[in-house]
TrEMBL record:
It comes from the Eukaryota. One of its GO terms (cellular component) is cytosol. This is Uncharacterized protein. It comes from Aphis gossypii (Cotton aphid). InterPro entries: ClpP/crotonase-like_dom_sf, Enoyl-CoA_hydra/iso. Keywords: Lyase. One of its GO terms (biological process) is fatty acid beta-oxidation. SUPFAM superfamilies: ClpP/crotonase.
Length: 301
C-alpha cells in the first residue's frame, strides 16, 4: 500500500532552512563589539549640548534629569555617557532607596536626537549604539533601588518610552491631555532596541506588546494605565516624589534585598537583549529609516 503524504515544504537553501535563512537575513552579521568597543565608537560623537544630571536628596531619593531642552530632551551620545556615569554613582551610593527619572523644562524625552542619529546612520553604528546604551540601561534596571519614570509635557516617545521600561514604575502627568507615551518606532522604519522589547513583554505580556509595537500609537495617561504600561497618574513632580516615598518606607537594606530578590526572576536576560540588537541593527539607516529621518518625521499623532 502506498502512503500519501503532504509535500515537503522545508527546502534547504545554502545549507539553511527557510526559517534559518529568514532569521539570518534580518539580523546583524557585522563585526562583533564588546561594551568598551561600542563605547569607544559612540563617544566619538559627544556634543557639548545635552546632559543627564544627578541630584541626591538627603531622604535617599535621587533625581535624574534628562537635559537637552532644545530638542525635548532627545538622547545623544553625551547623554548616554552621562547616564553611564550616573548609574555607576548610584551603584555606589549605599544610602539610596529610590530614584526618579524626569526631563528638563517639563518634557520627558522625545527619543533619539536626530542630529546624532544621522551621524551613525548605518547598521554598524546602530549595533554599537545598542550594545552601549543597552548595557547601561540593563545595569540601571538592576540597581538595588526603586526607580520611577515621571512622564510629563510632550511625554515619552520612541527611545524616551524605551528608557521608561528600565525603571521599576512609570507615572504619567495628568495635568494636561497632551502628555503621551508611545513606542512609535515602526513609523521611523525601525524596531525598539536597548533591551526594551523584553522588558515590555514582562510588563504587558506578548499580545499587548505586539499590538503596541505594530500600531505605534500614542497613549494618554488613562489609556496607558488601562493597558498596564504605566502604574499611575499624578499632577506634579512633588506628587511623584510622594508616590515613590510610599514605596520606600522600609529600611534601606530591606528595600535593596527585595529589589535583588525580584531581579532573580527577571524576564529579560542578556541573551534576549543581544538578539534585539542584532534585529535592530540592519533596520537602522535602512531605506525606511532614512526616509523618515530625511522627512524629519518625529512622533506625530
Amino acid at each position: 500500500m502506498r502512503l500519501s503524504r503532504a509535500p515537503i515544504l522545508m527546502q534547504i537553501e545554502n545549507g539553511r532552512t527557510p526559517k534559518a535563512k529568514y532569521l539570518h537575513d534580518l539580523t546583524y552579521h557585522g563585526q562583533e563589539l564588546s561594551f568598551n568597543e561600542a563605547k569607544n565608537i559612540i563617544i566619538q560623537y559627544l556634543e557639548s549640548s545635552g546632559s543627564v544630571d544627578l541630584e541626591k536628596d538627603v531622604n535617599g531619593i535621587a533625581k535624574i534629569r534628562l537635559n537637552n531642552p532644545r530638542c525635548m530632551n532627545a538622547i545623544n551620545a553625551k547623554m548616554m555617557s552621562d547616564l553611564e556615569e550616573i548609574t555607576e554613582k548610584l551603584s555606589q551610593w549605599t544610602e539610596c532607596k529610590g530614584a526618579i527619572v524626569y526631563g528638563a523644562d517639563g518634557n520627558f524625552c522625545a527619543g533619539g536626537d536626530l542630529n546624532f542619529a544621522k551621524k551613525i546612520s548605518n547598521p554598524y553604528g546602530g549595533y554599537a549604539m545598542n550594545i552601549y546604551l543597552g548595557h547601561i540601561l540593563n545595569k540601571f534596571k538592576k540597581l538595588p533601588i526603586i526607580t520611577v519614570a515621571y512622564i510629563e509635557g510632550a511625554g515619552a516617545l520612541g527611545g524616551g518610552a524605551e528608557i521608561t521600561t528600565a525603571c521599576d514604575y512609570r507615572l504619567m502627568c495628568n495635568a494636561v491631555d497632551t502628555t503621551a507615551i508611545g513606542f512609535v518606532h515602526s513609523k521611523m522604519g525601525i524596531v525598539p532596541a536597548w533591551g526594551s522589547t523584553a522588558r515590555l513583554v514582562s510588563i504587558m505580556g506578548v499580545r499587548k506588546t505586539l499590538d503596541l509595537l505594530l500600531e505605534s500609537r500614542l497613549f494618554s495617561a488613562a489609556e496607558a494605565m488601562d493597558s498596564g504600561l504605566v502604574d499611575g497618574a499624578v499632577a506634579t513632580m512633588a506628587d511623584a516624589e510622594t508616590w515613590l516615598s510610599h514605596k520606600i518606607r522600609a529600611d534601606v537594606n530591606v528595600i535593596r534585598a527585595i529589589k535583588r530578590m525580584v531581579q532573580c526572576y527577571d524576564d529579560s536576560p542578556e541573551t534576549v537583549r543581544m538578539m534585539e540588537s542584532r534585529i535592530f541593527a540592519p533596520l537602522w539607516g535602512g531605506p525606511a529609516n532614512q526616509a523618515a529621518i530625511e522627512k524629519h518625521l518625529k512622533h506625530k499623532r
